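step=predict obj=Transcriptional regulator MraZ n=165
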Amino acid sequence: MRFFSSNVKNRIDAKGRVSIPAPFRKVFYREDDPTVILIPAMRDQPALDGMSMSQFERMVESLEQMAPLDEVTYALQTRLIAEARQIQIDDTGRIVLTQDLRDAAGLSGDTVLFAGLGRTFQIWSPEVYEERLPALRALAAQNFNRLQWSAAPKPDAGHANGGVA
């Protein structure tokens, strides 16, 4: 799998049809099952969370590791599985955002914004996304130190000067 990155605005028609950005489609077409999974935003945001079927399966597997009769497990299953929609990509690279999905994300205009988040993406109203972007940028700037970068190669333990003879 490749990653969803960047953000792209696309027009949505009266029937809820919208073209998936070409770089996003490439991610889906690398999958065994190029189905788009959409869920009303998992973080109580006016957006839709989107992912590939394989990413959705990983999320379901994670939920299956939780205590099956626990109330939190049930709440998460209801929120993440029961509210998920499996949407097929048509021959022209479009998906249909049903009215209930548009309502859940506050998508009332004729344009939506796809925002890539790595293994997932979101669909926003462009205006709402732009309003929230400064706060997200500020939070990111305060927390770049939390990124876990790959460890640098360790110097040769046999040499105190890092392996230089």
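step=describe
Residues 7-144 form a domain with the Chemotaxis protein chec fold (CATH 3.40.1550.20).
step=end
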